Amino acid sequence: xSLREGPFGDIKAPLRWTALAAVAxxxxxxxxxxxxxxxMGEGAITRAREAVDQAAExxxxxxxxxxxxxxxxxxxVGDYLFAASQNARLKAELxxxxxxxxxxxxxxxxNARYRxxxxxxxxxxxxxxxxxxxxxxxGPFSNTRLADVGSDRGVxxxxxxxxxxxxxxxxxxxxxxASRILLxxxxxxxxxxxxxxxxxxxxxxxxxxxxxxxxxxxxxxxxRAGDMVLTSGDGGVFPRGLPVGVIYQGVGxxxxxxxxxxxSAIDYVRIxxxxxxxxxxxxxxLGPKTLPSAMTEEPSESIIGPPPATPTVKPAPPxxxxxxxxxxxxxxxxxxxxxxxxxxxxxxxxxxx
Amino acid sequence: xxxxxxxxxxxxxxxxxxxWLGLPALLCALASLLLAMPIRVLGLQLPEPVFAMAPAFAWxxxxxxxxxxxxxxxxxxxxxxLWGAPVGLWPLVLLTLYAPVLAxxxxxxxxxxxxxxxxxxxxxxxxxxxxxxIVAARYGVAxxxxxxxxxxxxxxxxxxxxxxxxxxYEDADVRFR
Lengths: 353, 177
Hints:
Chain A is an alpha+beta fold. Helices cover 31% and strands 19% of the residues of chain A.
């Protein structure tokens, strides 16, 4: 029996209002999706995004192949036609670079001596993988790229991404064979940076335009046009010292950064397999493996027990000194203070700091 | 219905959902994918118009229907995933374009090319304004107006595609003429 012949056959809903109701339902669904949307992390949407990224990566690779061939052909023709002028320019650059090389060698040797004298620990080299970007989003609301390496090459969320000239962004999501890169220009991007000239810190904030702005600058006159910007390493997402760009003053008077990475096509990128600062040092080196004894104001009493490294120390007699005030007595369940820990604390207090 | 549509000059077609909704949506997805290539011509990046706004406007003008809002929901979610935006942003933007055009449909049907283009530009401006407000509220950063302007202009230039879709299907169902 069709609907027209049934009991609801006489019901006539105006199609325009029904369509508007459908619009309302779709908007509620979209708002719910947007409210729960996360660009990183777990969830069904993230898994869907990873699946689409993984499927789009070979498509983007194939679609961009003819363009790469044209660019390669154009480059070859240009190299052939302008070989003589390029040769002269490269010779001039080589002469300049030779002088810089000698200076760099001298500075490197000097640096090594200073480090040895001061006992400075330098960061170990960070492993990296090379990738090609195959898809690109350039709008004002999102700036991301899709790279053709993924978790099968060790890439994880948060890894910094560099082009041949400077920092590009960080990995936002990873599937098995593709990675989504959040560019520094994306409105969601926040990058802690520093200006080495003044050691001033700031947050580099993307806004969908080509030049992100510097927020949260402190102190008087901390920057000026032409200052170099590096990652500060604050927060542990990026290692310290990655080149970012050069400062200039925007039209509205705010400080902005012309990104080094923007001066060339970001076709090939390096993804640093940098997790956080814990990979720069051996695990467990950050502090003692056992807690020191914490003393109350009464040197003879302890809130927690002595470290287990001294099991031979005999426990204090069960009777507490009668002179100790009741409020400073050890809490129930805590071990009484040992003479060894008390003397250690006393000597620590007397030691120069 | 189909013979009547053919009798009106051969430019119109029957309102088969696959043809008036599915095919344009698929073409929009493919065009967006194609323009997402990381290409620079003379050092400049390619424009990134929102192709889906053209059929969103046309669908609202052609006839009221329950299906287009959900097609726009799916198409917007695809754009979010393709462009790496938070899922839900582009569905909201597209539906913000669709809803007022559907409400104003009685004023739009039968208008000529230039008038409809004006309405399309106004609807796009409203939709981009909504996107601007949503992103600014979510991230606490006002998106770059220059980038927004370029994307808006590139999208506004797509109206001939919308017009072609309207011409092809607006007489397909005489109940909504």
